[in-house]
Each structure stands twice: as C-alpha cells, then as structure tokens.
Write a structure and sequence with these properties.
Number of domains: 1
Shape: globular
CATH architecture: 3-Layer(aba) Sandwich
Radius of gyration: 17 Å
Strand order of the largest sheet: 3-4-2-1-5-6-7-11-8
CATH superfamily: Survival protein SurE-like phosphatase/nucleotidase
Order of helices and strands: EHEEEHEHEHEEEEHE
Strand content: 25-35%
Amino acid sequence: MNKRQLVLITCDDGYTEGFKTLMAIAQERWGKACVKAVMPFGDHSGMGSACTLSRSICVFGTRTDNVAELGVAGFPLDCVRYGIWKYKPTLVLVGVNRGANLGLNLISSSTFCCAALAAEHGIPAIAFSQHVDGEGEKHASSEIHITEALDACFDLHKMLCNVNLHNVEKQYRGIKFAYDNTGRGGYLDVISEKDGLVSIQREFKVVDQLDRWLVGGYTVIQSW
C-alpha cells in the first residue's frame, strides 16, 4: 500500500533499534512529513491495555537521531490515544517489540493492545514483534523482512494484523498466516521465592503450531 498515508508509530519498548528500523521503512515509503512518532518514556512491556484515566499526562517534544517525536509520560496506550487525537492518522504501526506476542499472550502485550486500540477507532493497524531466544541475543530486524511482512498485511485487507518476525539467528523460511488465532502463545511464568522476595519471569516455550512456525524460521501473521 503505497498510497498517501498519515502514519502514527509507537513502540512500547521505547526508542529501540527495532523501532528505528520500522520508522525508517515508513519514512522511505510515505515521506518523513507523513510519519509521526509518539513514544513512551522507557520500556513498558507487558502493560497490556493499561492507560491513564483520572489524571493529566505530560507530553514533550523530543528529537533523537534526527527523528522528531513526542514523548508521553504515560502508558503505551496513552501514546496511541493522544496520537490519534492529535494527528488523525490513517495507519498505525507499533513496534518492533523485542520478544514474540502470539495467541492468548496478546492480552498482556502492550504492542498488540496499542494496535487493537487503533483498530477500535476504525484505523488499520499492524503490531510488529520479533522472536528472540534469550536476553543476550541480538535484537535486529531486517528491513527486507519487515517490508515483506508489511506488504503481506496490506494484501490481507484486514483492520488489524499481528506480525511476529522470525528469529534473526535462524534461516528465514517465509511467511505463515495463522487463520486460527486461538493458540496459547509461547510464554510461561517462571516463579521463585527467596527470603520473602518473589521473582516472576517469563520464558518462551514451544506449546503449539504458531510457536513451532516461529522458532522454525517463519514470520507468523495473525489478522482480524
């Protein structure tokens, strides 16, 4: 979809390499003047649909690596709510999130919930996440693969798409379309307790077909 768009971009992980790659792709396709970024301060992973309801939020103009953007002292959903009100976008892109978001795991994903909020407003939206195997693994999304997934989403003509990019350490095998969106998703809680302190971590486990595709080198696209 190369027709003129006004694109809103955010990323719940903050100003990451994945976000910068997605921003660069959007600016090249639609022009810098047509791409607006509204970002949360810092990493807000796992916030799901949390948003600010009973207080004001601060918005600041910032510039990083020659990218003009607005920073919001709130939740990722606040960025989308404010961005929709301010810019009236025709397309919303979210990501690229570090870590997969699949199946029922989507209810806790700020990345997906930001895109779903845009779709609720009648604005086509695409959420991008990338599977990684560990904390120390390189998080870098190929422009070629993101662009291919972007075009695949446009070809579906759906209001909401959820893209999970393949692990960059694995050989790329193409795109799989998940027409059954009811998978469990690959994250399981790992909980331990010591000296009155509870540690709750999440680890990616292969539990269904969507996960097998992802760890096998495929980009997985869900759509609604």
